[in-house]
Structure formats: structure tokens, C-alpha cells
Design goal:
- The chain has 1 helix and 8 strands, in the order αββββββββ.
- By secondary structure, the chain is of the alpha+beta class.
- The chain has a single domain, classed as Lipocalin, CATH 2.40.128.
- It is globular.
- The protein starts with a helix and ends with a strand.
Length: 140
């Protein structure tokens, strides 16, 4: 009896998780504003597409003079209905903060409360919080 109840609970949770993940994937596909707040001239644009069951992300944000920028390209893996991981390349240059960052990354983005964006969880990896606290967001 206990095994039957546990099996039922496990299957119910698996169905909910799969359904929630599918719902998030569907909401992510398309065009989104995104960027960091230290590029003062406005947010950039990103596109998320699904190819062969994999979500691909590509985005760019530039200052008006094109000297400061954020470029990201990679894949997204859904964790649950509010979290996903981004794996890929990140290039970020801002004059007043940490200079040039050019690296391959594995980051988590999270949406909390009623926010209309997913925010980078590992902000300190971009730059020391005492120098610049980057907020890297992907909007609905």
C-alpha cells in the first residue's frame, strides 16, 4: 500500500514538473528585451528558439556609441517553472565597472514573485559586488 501511494505521488510530481517545464519553455520562445543596467542607453534584444527539442538563446545589448556591450549565445535548460540554466558564451564590456569579460558560462536565471523578468542568480561571478553589482535580466 505504501509503495502504491509513493508511486502515485512520484508520478503526479513528474507530470506536474513536465507540464510546468513545457509551459515555461513555451513562454521563453520568442523575442525578449535583456541586458545589464550599467549600459545606460537601454536594454538589448534576445531571441530564444527551439530546434530539435533544445532551446537556443542569442542576445545583444549595445551602448549608443557601440563601445559598451553584452553578447550572449548558448542553450537553455529548464529546471522548473521559475528557473532555467544558460550554458554558452558571454562577452561583456563596460567602461566604469569590470572591463572586459569574455568567457564560457553556466548560469542560473530565476523569476521570483510577480516579476516580469528572469534575473541572473550568480551575479558575483560577473564582477565583485563591491565594484559593480550587475543585474543581468531577461524580460518576459
Amino acid at each position: 500500500m505504501i509503495k502504491s501511494v509513493l508511486a502515485f505521488c512520484f508520478l503526479t510530481m513528474a507530470m506536474f514538473t513536465t507540464s510546468a517545464q513545457q509551459k515555461l519553455a513555451e513562454s521563453l520562445i520568442g523575442n525578449h528585451q535583456f541586458g545589464v543596467q550599467f549600459i545606460w542607453d537601454g536594454y538589448g534584444n534576445s531571441t530564444i528558439v527551439e530546434k530539435n527539442g533544445i532551446l537556443h538563446f542569442k542576445g545583444a545589448q549595445y551602448s549608443n556609441d557601440k563601445e559598451e556591450y553584452l553578447l550572449m549565445e548558448g542553450t537553455i535548460t529548464i529546471i522548473d517553472e521559475r528557473n532555467f540554466t544558460f550554458s554558452g558564451s558571454l562577452k561583456l564590456f563596460t567602461k566604469g565597472c569590470c572591463g572586459l569579460l569574455d568567457r564560457d558560462v553556466n548560469y542560473t536565471f530565476r523569476k521570483t514573485g510577480k516579476r516580469a523578468y528572469w534575473r541572473l542568480k550568480e551575479r558575483e561571478d560577473l564582477c565583485s559586488q563591491y565594484q559593480c553589482a550587475y543585474y543581468l535580466d531577461i524580460f518576459d
